[in-house]
From TrEMBL:
UniProt-recorded name of the protein: Glycoside hydrolase family 3 N-terminal domain-containing protein
GO biological process entries: carbohydrate metabolic process; peptidoglycan turnover
InterPro entries reported for this sequence: Acyl_CoA_acyltransferase, GH, Glyco_hydro_3_C_sf, Glyco_hydro_3_N, Glyco_hydro_3_N_sf, NagZ_Beta-hexosaminidase
UniProt KW keywords: Glycoprotein, Glycosidase, Hydrolase
GO terms assigned for molecular function: hydrolase activity, hydrolyzing O-glycosyl compounds
Family membership: Belongs to the glycosyl hydrolase 3 family.
Keyword Glycoprotein: yes
Length: 899
């Protein structure tokens, strides 16, 4: 039957305007009826339809045979997504080669590689009868946060995306496939609202899109791309309002057709997506999509939805909502595309395995070359690579991997599903944290490869949003080196926190005579996970976690070849800027040289940040000096003017093996220049070199200046916490802390109600001084308090002239159940409590109350210790009392008269 006469009939025309899918690996009654009775012209095949090349070739030939027998004038367009990396519809371990994701290919730095891989991919598809590939992806990642595309995009630089996208398009064409750019106008910056009924929104204006995201689409149009898929996203910005881009004439007809001059085939997003079908309906959506300018309407799931699409299109014509001229326009564009890439001769005689066999060897070599060229070592500061020079065979290597859904493109996952009972090799110990959860198989195979390569013992366990658990801590302590894998940590934030926590544990570990346990962090998907975080010294990117990619990673880890991959555009540029900002000279604080500059810095910060840092009001360089404690402070300064731009004190409390990072203070006019980061890195490095150190602590009770992160402003606190998280400090947020002062002490009297309560509590109080009372007091402090208390009690016991301790005891057996420190402004450590130096009043200090958990009425005993402390200072002639550390209250210096 002649094409012209067939396409005079409206049903045949409408069939060519539809693109549909089905479930099953064989021809089903649904798809047979769509082709034979509804004259469907395009079939979309997905991974649910395809098992291997032999089955795929048969299925495709069966579909074309049905169309030919039903007198279709032109062959079916049969399309698939085959992006490589983690997005492949057709998998066959023998005949279909695995190639890197788009971003992985861009990491090779070669558009020739992009062309060769695209051509090889298309050749394999053409051999089984597929004639249309849904690619290339032309989205620019203009916002890397929470974007689902990830490594499916070539990157975040529009020019690079354009170059690699067009190279891939030319490769597809070279092999004879029709091409389709996606996802117009860009999925690179989407705002997700959370509900399945809410489509993601593009908030960029048309001007913003035009300068960045639309560039690759515009270039692809100029180079003759065959089709364009318009995404199922909303647009909300100045100049355009669209509930669904593919249903908007502003997006399709005006922007894509008229403004950008596209004359090829436009495909809608699937109209069965929940947000669209529930809000509009498939039939209504079909009418809107055609009127917007779409030529092919995609309905890829249910037969009922597909029938509704046909009915809706017919009703639109019958009710004059769609003109016949509009149908003719779309039909003409579709037939023109088919005439270039599709013929019955090719459709009914696919090459099959006979055509694929000669391609195996060159494609295997291309795959190996591509992966070896894409693996990117972003940093290796401590020269941990290759691991063969770092670990002996008798040392254990720990592999920590996230639980992920397996990729259909992974040979390992295919084999594991078909032979799940295969035994573990004796070289691998797998700690099955969550048995039965998906995603283990790919990484288990990676662990096996690591074990085989090194010829030594490998420990392997997974991690989840539960964070670092005892099993992880035990294995980290046991291993001599650690490898942590992450996958899209920007969207799976638990991976980010877990990795930073492991990094901190490794930094505090002791390995022979060397401080710090070797840690290698590998992003097996998005390189944005830790690319800009220099606190992780060795960082590698693979760009996908298929078996082929992870085998290339094994070869990199053990020095089989030198990796040459590069990061995407802006990351590559930002990394250079980031690194150039880390070169501030950090010097050891010299009191004679720097004291005046530090005082000026403190005054400047207090004047501008007084609400955040009230404790700086009475600070001077003397406030950071602690007697009998190892301390080393650091400055960043102008070596010509001696002005101090940044200051960071550090302390090492030997009794608890704790290193303390004091406040990082930076001149407000010189912030965001990495001065704080430079100080932080030098300070932490110095603390980690202290003999016997077991832990690091952010802030301390002495000096009484910085207890952690300032907390009076929620927004600023979140920003600072994020900064410290990025530096590797993880854990629960610190409690708000403040100091409280009681003035007019000479007229103060205690509450009679409290006296009665203390009598009922059956405790005795006494006042002691001197080191001879140390043992029972320090035993109480160490078993009943947080870190930092023991040092204060140690100072008080050593300074028996100006300090004392009130003890609370059970009269029956003399057991200590509470204590509090009293000190005067003349004590050896009062300089480190700036608030006690305020004004001209004679002020006494009360510090660090400790109550045993077995004491009973905690509140009454605490008040009793403080009240007796106030009375003691009153007796000694003080006119005011400072309670220098109060937890859980608003952090301001306040008055209290209610005791």
């Amino acid at each position: 039957m002649e094409a012209a006469s067939v396409f005079n009939k409206m049903d045949w025309k409408l069939g060519q305007l539809m693109m549909m899918g089905f479930d099953g690996t064989e021809v089903t009654p649904q798809i047979r009826r769509l082709i034979a009775d509804y004259h469907l012209g395009t079939v979309l095949l997905t991974a649910k339809n395809l098992r291997n090349v032999e089955q795929t070739a048969k299925l495709v030939l069966d579909l074309q045979t049905i169309a030919h027998a039903a007198n279709h004038p032109v062959p079916l367009a049969i399309a698939v997504d085959q992006e490589n990396g983690g997005v492949n519809s057709l998998f066959d371990a023998e005949y279909v080669q695995q190639f890197p994701s788009a971003m992985g290919v861009a990491a090779t730095g070669s558009t020739e590689m992009a062309f060769s891989i695209a051509k090889a991919t298309a050749e394999e598809l053409a051999a089984v009868g597929i004639n249309w590939i849904m690619g290339p992806c032309l989205d620019v990642l203009t916002n890397i946060k929470n974007q689902p595309l990830g490594v499916r995009s070539w990157g975040d630089d529009a020019d690079e995306v354009s170059r690699y996208g067009i190279a891939a398009m030319e490769g597809y064409k070279e092999a004879g496939l029709a091409t389709c750019g996606k996802h117009f106008p860009s999925y690179g910056n989407l705002e997700f609202l959370g509900s399945a009924l809410d489509v993601p929104v593009i908030t960029d204006s048309l001007d913003q899109l035009s300068t960045t995201a639309l560039g690759p689409f515009r270039d692809a149009i100029s180079q003759g791309i065959d089709a364009m898929m318009v995404g199922g996203c909303a647009m909300s910005s100045a100049g355009v309002e669209a509930m669904h881009a593919c249903l908007s004439d502003q997006v399709v007809d005006q922007l894509l057709r008229r403004d950008m001059g596209f004359k090829g085939v436009v495909i809608s997003e699937c109209l069965e997506m929940e947000a669209l079908s529930q809000n509009i309906g498939v039939g209504g959506g079909t009418v809107m999509a055609v009127n917007a300018g779409c030529d092919l309407i995609l309905v890829c799931r249910s037969f009922a939805g597909q029938q509704e699409a046909f009915s809706g299109l017919k009703a639109g014509i019958e009710n004059d909502l769609i003109t016949k001229e509009r149908i003719e326009e779309s039909l003409s564009r579709i037939l023109q595309m088919k005439s270039k890439c599709m013929s019955w001769e090719r459709a009914l005689a696919p090459g099959g395995i006979a055509a694929l066999s000669p391609l195996q060897s060159p494609h295997i070599k291309l795959s190996e070359k591509a992966y070896n060229s894409s693996i990117t070592v972003v940093r290796d500061k401590d020269r941990l690579l290759p691991l063969s020079s770092l670990l002996s065979q008798d040392e254990e290597l720990l592999l920590l991997t996230p639980l992920l859904h397996p990729l259909p493109a992974s040979a390992a996952s295919q084999r594991m599903r078909s032979n799940s009972s295969s035994p573990e090799p004796p070289a691998v110990t797998w700690q099955r944290d969550h048995p039965g959860m998906s995603g283990e198989s790919v990484f288990q195979e990676f662990g096996r490869s690591l074990a085989r390569q090194r010829g030594g013992r490998l420990l392997h366990t997974s991690y989840t949003a539960s964070g670092v658990r005892p099993v992880h801590e035990n294995l980290i302590n046991r291993a001599s080196a650690v490898i942590v894998l992450t996958a899209d940590a920007n969207r799976n934030l638990y991976q980010h926190g877990f990795t930073k926590h492991v990094s901190m544990i490794c930094k505090l570990s002791q390995r022979g005579d060397r401080r710090g346990k070797p840690l290698v962090v590998v992003s097996v998907s998005s390189p944005y996970d830790f690319a800009m975080e220099s606190s992780l010294g060795t960082y590698i990117c693979t760009f996908d976690f298929t078996e082929t990619a992870l085998q290339a990673l094994v070869n990199v880890l053990y020095g089989e070849f030198r990796p040459t991959g590069t990061l995407p555009g802006s990351l590559r540029q930002n990394q250079k800027v980031h690194q150039s900002k880390q070169h501030w000279l950090v010097e050891i604080y010299d009191q004679d040289r720097d004291a005046h500059g530090v005082d000026a810095l403190l005054m400047n910060i207090h004047e501008q940040d007084h609400e955040q840092l009230a404790n700086l009001a009475n600070c001077s360089h003397k406030s950071f000096r602690l007697k009998m404690v190892h301390q080393q402070h650091f400055v960043v300064r102008n070596t010509s003017t001696q002005a101090i731009y940044g200051f960071c004190p550090t302390y090492y409390f030997e009794s608890t093996h704790t290193g303390v990072l004091g406040p990082i203070l930076v001149d407000p006019e010189r912030r965001n220049l990495s001065i704080g980061q430079s100080l932080h890195n030098r300070a932490v490095k110095t603390l980690l070199q202290m003999q016997g150190i077991k832990r690091l602590q952010l802030g301390s009770r002495l000096p009484n200046i910085c207890f952690g992160i300032p907390s009076s402003d929620i927004t600023e606190r979140k920003r600072l916490r994020q900064w410290f998280d990025d530096m590797g400090w993880t854990g629960s947020p610190s409690r708000p802390v403040c100091s409280m002062a009681l003035f007019n002490l000479q007229t103060w009297t205690k509450s009679e109600c409290l006296t009665s309560s203390l009598h009922d509590a059956e405790v005795e109080f006494d006042l002691v001084q001197g080191a001879e009372h140390a043992r029972p007091i320090l035993d109480l402090v160490r078993t009943s308090s947080r870190l930092g208390m023991a040092e204060i009690y140690g100072f008080a016991l050593d300074d028996h002239v100006n300090s004392s301790i009130i003890r609370a005891k059970r009269p029956a057996d003399g057991t200590l159940v509470g204590a509090v420190v009293l000190y005067s402004a003349s004590s050896d450590w009062a300089d480190s409590v700036p608030a006690i130096q305020e004004g001209t009043q004679a002020m006494g200090g009360i510090s660090s109350p400790v109550i045993s958990p077995s004491a009973g009425d905690f509140s009454t005993l605490l008040q009793g210790l403080i009240v007796l402390g106030i009375k003691q200072h009153q007796k000694q002639g003080a006119t005011a009392v400072l309670l220098d550390y109060v937890s859980g209250l608003h952090p301001t210096l306040g008055k209290s008269t209610n005791l």
